[in-house]
Amino acid sequence: MKSNITVTFFSNYLLHHQTPFCEAMIKRIGANFRFVATEPTPEFRLKIGYHDFSDVSYVVYSYKNDDEHKKALKLATESDVVIIGSAPDYFIEERVRQNKLTFRYSERFFKEGKIRLLDPRVFMYHYKQDFKYRSKNLYMLCASAYTAPDCRFILSYPEKTYKWGYFPETALLPYDQIAKQKQSGDKVKILWASRFIKYKHPEDAINLAIKLKAAGLDFQIEMLGIGELRQKCEDTVREKGLNDVISFTGPFSPKEVLERMRSADIFLFTSDKGEGWGAVLNESMSNACAVVANREIGSVPYLIENGKNGLIYDRKDKNSLYQCVKKLVENEPLRKTLGKNAYDTIKTVWNAETAADRLITLIDCINNGTPVPFTSGPCSKD
Questions:
Q1: Cis omega (within 30 of 0) for bond into 251
Q2: Domain assignment of residue 146, yes or no
Q3: What are 228-240's pLDDT values in tens digits?
Q4: Which one of 36, 173, 270, 369 has the fewest CB atoms closer than 10 angstroms to its CB?
Q5: Which residues contact 105 (CB under 8 A, 6 or more apart)?
Protein backbone atom coordinates (compact mmCIF):
# COMPACT_ATOMS: atom_id res chain seq x y z
CA MET A 1 0.00 0.00 0.00
CA LYS A 2 1.47 3.33 -1.06
CA SER A 3 0.49 6.82 0.02
CA ASN A 4 1.81 10.34 -0.52
CA ILE A 5 0.81 11.58 2.94
CA THR A 6 3.38 12.87 5.39
CA VAL A 7 3.15 11.38 8.89
CA THR A 8 5.19 12.40 11.94
CA PHE A 9 5.16 10.46 15.20
CA PHE A 10 6.13 12.42 18.34
CA SER A 11 7.10 10.67 21.56
CA ASN A 12 9.57 11.08 24.41
CA TYR A 13 12.08 8.57 23.02
CA LEU A 14 12.19 5.69 20.60
CA LEU A 15 11.74 2.18 22.01
CA HIS A 16 12.22 -1.22 20.41
CA HIS A 17 8.46 -1.60 20.95
CA GLN A 18 7.89 1.17 18.40
CA THR A 19 10.59 0.61 15.78
CA PRO A 20 8.74 -2.17 13.89
CA PHE A 21 5.78 0.15 13.31
CA CYS A 22 8.10 3.01 12.27
CA GLU A 23 9.91 0.75 9.81
CA ALA A 24 6.60 -0.54 8.45
CA MET A 25 5.52 3.05 7.80
CA ILE A 26 8.79 3.78 6.00
CA LYS A 27 8.13 0.81 3.69
CA ARG A 28 4.84 2.46 2.75
CA ILE A 29 5.59 6.19 2.60
CA GLY A 30 9.39 6.37 2.72
CA ALA A 31 10.91 9.66 3.83
CA ASN A 32 7.39 11.04 4.35
CA PHE A 33 7.48 9.32 7.75
CA ARG A 34 9.47 10.77 10.63
CA PHE A 35 9.76 10.01 14.34
CA VAL A 36 10.53 12.89 16.72
CA ALA A 37 12.23 12.00 20.01
CA THR A 38 11.85 14.81 22.55
CA GLU A 39 14.26 13.48 25.20
CA PRO A 40 17.10 10.93 25.47
CA THR A 41 16.41 7.33 26.45
CA PRO A 42 16.57 7.09 30.28
CA GLU A 43 19.58 5.39 31.77
CA PHE A 44 17.46 2.87 33.70
CA ARG A 45 16.00 1.55 30.44
CA LEU A 46 19.44 1.17 28.90
CA LYS A 47 20.58 -0.78 31.99
CA ILE A 48 17.81 -3.35 31.55
CA GLY A 49 18.75 -4.04 27.94
CA TYR A 50 16.86 -1.43 25.91
CA HIS A 51 18.53 -0.21 22.73
CA ASP A 52 20.00 3.27 22.47
CA PHE A 53 18.35 4.64 19.30
CA SER A 54 20.47 7.78 19.27
CA ASP A 55 21.45 7.69 15.61
CA VAL A 56 18.55 6.50 13.45
CA SER A 57 18.05 8.07 10.03
CA TYR A 58 14.29 8.65 10.29
CA VAL A 59 14.47 10.15 13.81
CA VAL A 60 14.59 13.87 14.58
CA TYR A 61 16.10 14.48 18.04
CA SER A 62 14.39 17.71 19.10
CA TYR A 63 16.33 17.88 22.38
CA LYS A 64 19.81 17.85 20.83
CA ASN A 65 20.12 21.37 19.41
CA ASP A 66 18.20 24.36 18.00
CA ASP A 67 18.30 23.08 14.41
CA GLU A 68 16.76 19.74 15.38
CA HIS A 69 14.14 21.50 17.51
CA LYS A 70 13.17 23.82 14.65
CA LYS A 71 12.94 20.83 12.33
CA ALA A 72 10.59 19.13 14.80
CA LEU A 73 8.40 22.24 15.06
CA LYS A 74 8.18 22.45 11.28
CA LEU A 75 7.15 18.81 11.01
CA ALA A 76 4.57 19.35 13.73
CA THR A 77 2.94 22.16 11.77
CA GLU A 78 3.35 21.02 8.17
CA SER A 79 2.84 17.23 8.30
CA ASP A 80 -0.44 15.96 6.92
CA VAL A 81 -0.83 13.76 10.00
CA VAL A 82 0.77 13.88 13.43
CA ILE A 83 0.66 11.15 16.07
CA ILE A 84 1.64 12.39 19.51
CA GLY A 85 2.31 10.25 22.54
CA SER A 86 4.38 11.27 25.56
CA ALA A 87 5.64 14.56 24.17
CA PRO A 88 5.08 18.26 24.98
CA ASP A 89 1.73 19.57 23.80
CA TYR A 90 3.19 22.75 22.34
CA PHE A 91 4.23 20.73 19.32
CA ILE A 92 0.60 20.29 18.24
CA GLU A 93 -1.08 23.46 19.52
CA GLU A 94 -0.88 25.31 16.20
CA ARG A 95 -1.92 22.38 14.02
CA VAL A 96 -4.93 21.66 16.25
CA ARG A 97 -5.99 25.31 15.93
CA GLN A 98 -5.69 24.89 12.17
CA ASN A 99 -7.84 21.75 12.43
CA LYS A 100 -5.19 19.48 10.88
CA LEU A 101 -5.58 15.75 11.39
CA THR A 102 -3.93 14.76 14.68
CA PHE A 103 -3.95 11.56 16.71
CA ARG A 104 -3.17 11.34 20.37
CA TYR A 105 -1.63 8.05 21.44
CA SER A 106 -2.29 7.16 25.06
CA GLU A 107 -2.56 4.44 27.65
CA ARG A 108 -5.35 4.65 30.22
CA PHE A 109 -5.76 8.03 31.94
CA PHE A 110 -6.69 6.96 35.44
CA LYS A 111 -4.32 4.21 36.55
CA GLU A 112 -4.80 5.44 40.13
CA GLY A 113 -8.58 5.65 39.87
CA LYS A 114 -11.06 8.14 38.42
CA ILE A 115 -11.18 9.92 41.77
CA ARG A 116 -7.96 11.60 40.64
CA LEU A 117 -10.11 13.83 38.45
CA LEU A 118 -11.17 15.65 41.63
CA ASP A 119 -7.63 17.04 41.85
CA PRO A 120 -7.86 20.49 40.18
CA ARG A 121 -4.50 19.99 38.47
CA VAL A 122 -5.57 16.66 36.98
CA PHE A 123 -8.92 18.15 35.94
CA MET A 124 -7.29 21.10 34.16
CA TYR A 125 -4.73 18.84 32.49
CA HIS A 126 -7.42 16.69 30.90
CA TYR A 127 -9.58 19.70 30.08
CA LYS A 128 -6.75 21.33 28.12
CA GLN A 129 -5.41 18.17 26.55
CA ASP A 130 -8.50 16.06 25.91
CA PHE A 131 -11.72 18.07 26.26
CA LYS A 132 -11.02 21.58 24.99
CA TYR A 133 -10.53 20.53 21.37
CA ARG A 134 -13.06 17.67 21.33
CA SER A 135 -14.76 19.13 18.23
CA LYS A 136 -11.48 19.49 16.32
CA ASN A 137 -9.86 17.03 13.91
CA LEU A 138 -8.32 15.30 16.92
CA TYR A 139 -8.59 11.53 17.47
CA MET A 140 -7.37 8.98 20.01
CA LEU A 141 -5.29 5.89 19.28
CA CYS A 142 -5.89 3.78 22.38
CA ALA A 143 -2.77 2.07 23.73
CA SER A 144 -4.96 0.29 26.28
CA ALA A 145 -8.38 -1.31 26.30
CA TYR A 146 -9.18 1.08 29.16
CA THR A 147 -8.33 4.32 27.32
CA ALA A 148 -11.64 4.60 25.44
CA PRO A 149 -13.75 4.18 28.62
CA ASP A 150 -11.63 6.87 30.28
CA CYS A 151 -12.21 9.15 27.28
CA ARG A 152 -15.96 8.59 27.49
CA PHE A 153 -15.88 9.27 31.23
CA ILE A 154 -14.57 12.79 30.60
CA LEU A 155 -16.73 13.27 27.48
CA SER A 156 -13.72 13.50 25.16
CA TYR A 157 -13.00 12.17 21.65
CA PRO A 158 -16.69 11.44 20.90
CA GLU A 159 -16.85 8.53 18.42
CA LYS A 160 -13.15 9.16 17.75
CA THR A 161 -11.38 6.43 19.74
CA TYR A 162 -9.63 3.60 17.90
CA LYS A 163 -7.90 0.43 19.07
CA TRP A 164 -4.15 0.68 18.85
CA GLY A 165 -1.27 -0.36 21.12
CA TYR A 166 2.38 -1.28 20.82
CA PHE A 167 3.70 -3.47 18.04
CA PRO A 168 7.07 -4.79 19.23
CA GLU A 169 9.55 -6.85 17.29
CA THR A 170 8.23 -10.38 17.45
CA ALA A 171 10.81 -12.12 15.22
CA LEU A 172 8.21 -14.63 14.11
CA LEU A 173 9.70 -18.03 13.39
CA PRO A 174 7.68 -20.77 11.68
CA TYR A 175 5.24 -22.19 14.22
CA ASP A 176 6.58 -25.76 13.88
CA GLN A 177 10.08 -24.56 14.72
CA ILE A 178 8.84 -22.87 17.90
CA ALA A 179 6.70 -25.86 18.88
CA LYS A 180 9.76 -28.15 18.76
CA GLN A 181 11.56 -25.96 21.32
CA LYS A 182 8.69 -26.51 23.76
CA GLN A 183 9.02 -30.30 23.70
CA SER A 184 12.24 -30.66 25.69
CA GLY A 185 12.05 -31.94 29.27
CA ASP A 186 9.28 -33.41 31.41
CA LYS A 187 8.48 -30.38 33.55
CA VAL A 188 6.02 -27.75 32.33
CA LYS A 189 8.05 -24.58 31.81
CA ILE A 190 6.43 -21.41 33.15
CA LEU A 191 7.99 -18.01 32.44
CA TRP A 192 7.52 -14.72 34.29
CA ALA A 193 9.48 -11.91 32.62
CA SER A 194 9.30 -8.35 33.89
CA ARG A 195 10.80 -5.79 36.22
CA PHE A 196 10.62 -6.72 39.89
CA ILE A 197 8.53 -3.73 40.95
CA LYS A 198 5.30 -3.33 42.88
CA TYR A 199 2.66 -3.12 40.15
CA LYS A 200 4.16 -6.14 38.32
CA HIS A 201 3.39 -8.31 41.39
CA PRO A 202 6.20 -10.88 41.22
CA GLU A 203 4.93 -12.22 44.56
CA ASP A 204 1.91 -13.63 42.73
CA ALA A 205 4.18 -16.03 40.82
CA ILE A 206 5.72 -17.17 44.11
CA ASN A 207 2.33 -17.71 45.76
CA LEU A 208 1.26 -19.63 42.67
CA ALA A 209 4.30 -21.91 42.98
CA ILE A 210 3.38 -22.73 46.59
CA LYS A 211 -0.06 -23.93 45.48
CA LEU A 212 1.17 -25.83 42.43
CA LYS A 213 3.83 -27.61 44.48
CA ALA A 214 1.31 -28.50 47.18
CA ALA A 215 -0.87 -30.02 44.46
CA GLY A 216 2.02 -32.27 43.40
CA LEU A 217 2.27 -30.83 39.90
CA ASP A 218 5.45 -31.08 37.82
CA PHE A 219 6.55 -27.59 36.79
CA GLN A 220 9.39 -25.07 36.79
CA ILE A 221 8.97 -21.29 37.02
CA GLU A 222 11.67 -19.02 35.63
CA MET A 223 11.50 -15.44 36.91
CA LEU A 224 13.42 -13.20 34.52
CA GLY A 225 14.33 -9.58 35.17
CA ILE A 226 15.78 -7.11 37.64
CA GLY A 227 14.30 -4.55 40.01
CA GLU A 228 14.00 -3.39 43.58
CA LEU A 229 11.89 -6.37 44.69
CA ARG A 230 14.06 -9.11 43.23
CA GLN A 231 16.19 -9.70 46.34
CA LYS A 232 13.07 -9.85 48.50
CA CYS A 233 11.57 -12.41 46.11
CA GLU A 234 14.74 -14.51 46.16
CA ASP A 235 14.73 -14.44 49.96
CA THR A 236 11.08 -15.54 50.05
CA VAL A 237 11.71 -18.42 47.65
CA ARG A 238 14.60 -19.61 49.82
CA GLU A 239 12.56 -19.29 53.04
CA LYS A 240 9.60 -21.16 51.56
CA GLY A 241 11.77 -23.97 50.20
CA LEU A 242 10.89 -23.26 46.57
CA ASN A 243 14.39 -23.29 45.07
CA ASP A 244 13.58 -26.56 43.32
CA VAL A 245 10.67 -25.02 41.38
CA ILE A 246 11.63 -21.32 40.95
CA SER A 247 14.80 -19.94 39.37
CA PHE A 248 15.86 -16.32 38.86
CA THR A 249 17.61 -15.19 35.67
CA GLY A 250 18.42 -12.02 33.76
CA PRO A 251 18.73 -9.28 32.93
CA PHE A 252 18.67 -10.21 29.25
CA SER A 253 18.44 -8.20 26.05
CA PRO A 254 15.02 -8.02 24.31
CA LYS A 255 16.26 -10.59 21.78
CA GLU A 256 17.31 -12.99 24.54
CA VAL A 257 13.94 -12.60 26.27
CA LEU A 258 12.23 -13.72 23.05
CA GLU A 259 14.47 -16.78 23.01
CA ARG A 260 13.41 -17.68 26.56
CA MET A 261 9.77 -17.32 25.53
CA ARG A 262 10.24 -19.81 22.69
CA SER A 263 11.09 -22.59 25.13
CA ALA A 264 8.37 -21.69 27.66
CA ASP A 265 5.04 -23.53 27.73
CA ILE A 266 3.15 -20.98 29.83
CA PHE A 267 3.68 -17.25 30.21
CA LEU A 268 2.51 -15.49 33.39
CA PHE A 269 1.49 -11.83 33.20
CA THR A 270 0.64 -10.72 36.72
CA SER A 271 0.67 -6.90 36.55
CA ASP A 272 -2.23 -4.82 37.84
CA LYS A 273 -3.83 -1.78 36.15
CA GLY A 274 -0.54 0.09 36.51
CA GLU A 275 0.53 -1.79 33.36
CA GLY A 276 -0.56 0.59 30.60
CA TRP A 277 -0.08 -1.83 27.70
CA GLY A 278 2.41 -4.63 28.37
CA ALA A 279 4.39 -5.49 25.22
CA VAL A 280 5.54 -8.80 26.71
CA LEU A 281 2.03 -10.04 25.92
CA ASN A 282 2.56 -9.48 22.18
CA GLU A 283 5.99 -11.06 22.45
CA SER A 284 4.96 -14.16 24.42
CA MET A 285 1.95 -14.76 22.15
CA SER A 286 4.16 -14.48 19.07
CA ASN A 287 6.27 -17.26 20.55
CA ALA A 288 3.28 -19.56 21.01
CA CYS A 289 3.13 -19.41 24.80
CA ALA A 290 -0.12 -20.32 26.51
CA VAL A 291 -0.64 -17.00 28.29
CA VAL A 292 -2.34 -16.47 31.64
CA ALA A 293 -2.87 -12.73 32.16
CA ASN A 294 -4.67 -10.40 34.55
CA ARG A 295 -7.68 -8.67 32.97
CA GLU A 296 -6.56 -5.25 34.31
CA ILE A 297 -3.55 -5.09 31.97
CA GLY A 298 -4.17 -2.68 29.08
CA SER A 299 -3.34 -5.06 26.23
CA VAL A 300 -5.22 -8.09 27.55
CA PRO A 301 -8.81 -7.35 26.43
CA TYR A 302 -7.51 -6.36 22.96
CA LEU A 303 -5.23 -9.32 22.33
CA ILE A 304 -6.72 -12.20 24.29
CA GLU A 305 -10.02 -13.92 23.62
CA ASN A 306 -10.47 -15.85 26.85
CA GLY A 307 -10.29 -19.60 26.35
CA LYS A 308 -9.35 -19.32 22.68
CA ASN A 309 -5.85 -17.82 22.51
CA GLY A 310 -5.09 -17.41 26.21
CA LEU A 311 -6.64 -17.37 29.66
CA ILE A 312 -7.69 -14.20 31.49
CA TYR A 313 -7.85 -14.26 35.26
CA ASP A 314 -9.25 -11.86 37.84
CA ARG A 315 -6.61 -10.79 40.32
CA LYS A 316 -9.32 -9.90 42.86
CA ASP A 317 -10.18 -13.60 42.99
CA LYS A 318 -7.26 -15.03 44.98
CA ASN A 319 -7.70 -18.49 43.44
CA SER A 320 -8.24 -17.43 39.82
CA LEU A 321 -4.59 -17.42 38.73
CA TYR A 322 -3.96 -20.83 40.31
CA GLN A 323 -7.00 -22.42 38.67
CA CYS A 324 -5.99 -21.14 35.22
CA VAL A 325 -2.38 -22.31 35.49
CA LYS A 326 -3.34 -25.64 37.05
CA LYS A 327 -5.65 -26.31 34.12
CA LEU A 328 -2.82 -25.65 31.67
CA VAL A 329 -0.20 -27.66 33.57
CA GLU A 330 -2.53 -30.65 33.55
CA ASN A 331 -3.71 -30.28 29.95
CA GLU A 332 -0.99 -30.33 27.30
CA PRO A 333 -3.41 -30.26 24.31
CA LEU A 334 -5.03 -27.11 25.70
CA ARG A 335 -1.61 -25.48 26.17
CA LYS A 336 -0.72 -26.21 22.56
CA THR A 337 -4.06 -24.99 21.21
CA LEU A 338 -3.92 -21.71 23.10
CA GLY A 339 -0.28 -21.21 22.11
CA LYS A 340 -0.97 -21.84 18.41
CA ASN A 341 -3.98 -19.50 18.42
CA ALA A 342 -1.94 -16.85 20.23
CA TYR A 343 0.78 -17.14 17.58
CA ASP A 344 -1.82 -16.76 14.81
CA THR A 345 -3.31 -13.66 16.49
CA ILE A 346 0.01 -11.83 16.30
CA LYS A 347 0.92 -13.17 12.86
CA THR A 348 -2.35 -12.19 11.20
CA VAL A 349 -3.69 -9.16 13.10
CA TRP A 350 -1.72 -7.58 15.94
CA ASN A 351 1.55 -6.78 14.19
CA ALA A 352 3.34 -3.69 12.89
CA GLU A 353 2.70 -4.39 9.20
CA THR A 354 -1.06 -4.71 9.69
CA ALA A 355 -1.09 -1.65 11.95
CA ALA A 356 0.69 0.48 9.33
CA ASP A 357 -1.67 -0.62 6.55
CA ARG A 358 -4.70 0.00 8.70
CA LEU A 359 -3.52 3.40 9.92
CA ILE A 360 -3.15 4.61 6.33
CA THR A 361 -6.65 3.31 5.59
CA LEU A 362 -8.01 5.00 8.72
CA ILE A 363 -6.44 8.30 7.67
CA ASP A 364 -8.03 7.99 4.22
CA CYS A 365 -11.43 7.20 5.78
CA ILE A 366 -11.29 10.20 8.10
CA ASN A 367 -10.19 12.53 5.31
CA ASN A 368 -12.88 11.25 2.94
CA GLY A 369 -15.65 10.93 5.53
CA THR A 370 -16.14 7.22 4.84
CA PRO A 371 -16.75 4.41 7.38
CA VAL A 372 -13.76 2.54 8.78
CA PRO A 373 -13.90 -1.06 7.48
CA PHE A 374 -12.31 -2.74 10.51
CA THR A 375 -14.53 -4.43 13.09
CA SER A 376 -11.73 -5.71 15.34
CA GLY A 377 -8.00 -5.32 15.83
CA PRO A 378 -5.91 -2.19 15.20
CA CYS A 379 -7.81 0.89 14.00
CA SER A 380 -11.24 -0.56 14.70
CA LYS A 381 -13.51 1.69 16.73
CA ASP A 382 -13.48 1.27 20.46
A1: yes
A2: yes
A3: 999 999 999 999 9
A4: 369
A5: 9, 11, 83, 84, 85, 140, 141, 143, 164
